Amino acid sequence: MRHTLSAACFAVGGAICGLSIATHGTNAASNGDLMSAYRIISSHDFVDLTHAFGPGIAHWPGFPNETVRTLFTYKKDGFFAQEFCHVGQWGTHVDPPAHFTPGGKTVDQIDPKQMFLPLVVIDVHEKVARNPDYVFSMDDVRAWEAKHGPIPTGAFIAMRTDWSKRFGSEAAMQNKDSKGIAHYPGWSLPVLQYLYLQRHAVATGHETTDTDPGLVTSRNVYPLESWILHHGHYQIELLTNLDRVPEAGSLVMVTFPKPRGGSGFPARLIAIVP
After folding, report:
1. H or E segment to which residue 76 belongs
2. DSSP string spanning 255-271?
3. Consecutive sets of 10 residues in the chain, 274 residues long: mean pLDDT of each?
4. Which residues, in sequence order, are bridge partners of residue 251?
5. Structural domain boundaries of the chain?
6. By the 8 A CB rule, do 122 and 185 touch?
7. pTM of the predicted model, to two decimals?
8. Least C-beta-crowded within 10 Å: which of 46, 106, 151, 269?
9. Backbone phi, then psi, for 196, in 5-degree steps?
10. 47-60+89-273 is a CATH 3.30.70.370 domain
11. Could you give the angle at the alpha carbon of 204 between the alpha carbons of 198 and 205, nearest 5°?
């Protein structure tokens, strides 16, 4: 029997290397393993973490509104087709490194292996309910790990704030005071450094329009988003339904179209929950 020796190396946050020996005749077993995995995965609940988008939805204030135009109709043309015009960062969307980093990866260059990941949900929604300016802290991460163990390598880490329940109102999402200062939660640099540099996360996501808290973005600066994207990672903004997903044990499919050289695009995320 002829043997094939292959070495496979790939990166999911940190480096993972493996050496495998395959023989002709093992394809059937491999196919069976995949079908067994499919049967297990498909038996679980699927939760959509994505907002439906359209004109007038909540968005970053600097972007124009979406427009939708009907080009063909059933009555006139026998089929239905529309034209959608919106910025890349519209609705639940992906921010690739190129969004902030010259020469960074664009949407079409994100590795498909980085689009099917373990899902970690860190829940701070009660703290946010008491303080809309809440900043995600290392205490929150330590509490999660004390309960569930170390955050797995190569994970997608979502911050649950329940801010997505405000999505129907732009004013509620921005939560501005009488001086025009926005008040909504955000990440912190120590947490991002820990998740990406020590736990080797692939990507992070949140329910707000920005990575940075409203008190920071009101100054028109975005240091935390810049840090993530300058370190070669992507992020997802405007997530929803994180209250329907357990903190640990789920998987997530992160999907989006493949615009050539894209600086961002609407995304669709599906959690597979135990």
Report:
1. helix 74-77
2. E----TT-S-EE-EEEE
3. 37 36 52 91 98 96 96 98 98 98 98 98 98 98 98 98 97 97 98 98 98 98 98 98 98 98 98 96
4. 118, 272
5. 3-43, 47-60+89-273
6. no
7. 0.88
8. 46
9. -85, -40
10. no
11. 155
